[in-house]
Amino acid sequence: MIDLKQHPIIKQYIIWNRFGDLLGMDFEVESKGHVLYKMTVTNNHLATPFAAHGGSVAALIDAALGVACLTEVCEDLKVVSTVNLTISYLIPALKDDVLLADAQVIKSGKRILFVEGKITNQKGELVATASATMNAYPVSKISEKVF
């Protein structure tokens, strides 16, 4: 199996994803449809003196869910966008927490993908759970410069 993180579409996603850089996120592809995304909570993520803004936690899980789906469709020269995201926050993400988002595609169709994920902290505590619906479409709709 090819290392999907080296696929041209995923490599281009890494270049385009400036928001992920801003939040300090990075990912590994475990297998097709399964991604682990990591982010350390810094001062830039905080909504209070000690707790992360829910939007930064949502951004982490949305990225993980999206890239899990991207690994499913990139070999078909497609990319994905979020149609629906549902997140449940279980405990606060605190300053200096190392968050790990684990996302797995549960059903993949020609255009619609269903994906679920969870975020844990460095103690293994469940911080949030999420599910999403993603839309897959040809990469040529956003750029002809991928290949």
UniProtKB/TrEMBL annotation:
An annotated Gene Ontology molecular function: fatty acyl-CoA hydrolase activity
Coiled coil: none
Keywords: Hydrolase
UniProt-listed Pfam families: 4HBT
Gene3D superfamilies hit by this protein: Hotdog Thioesterase
Domain Thioesterase per the UniProt entry, residue ranges: 52-128
CDD domains: PaaI_thioesterase
Superkingdom of source: Bacteria
Assigned protein family: Belongs to the thioesterase PaaI family.
Name of the protein in question: Phenylacetic acid degradation-related protein
Organism: Fluviicola taffensis (strain DSM 16823 / NCIMB 13979 / RW262)
Lineage, highest ranks first: Bacteria, Pseudomonadati, Bacteroidota, Flavobacteriia, Flavobacteriales
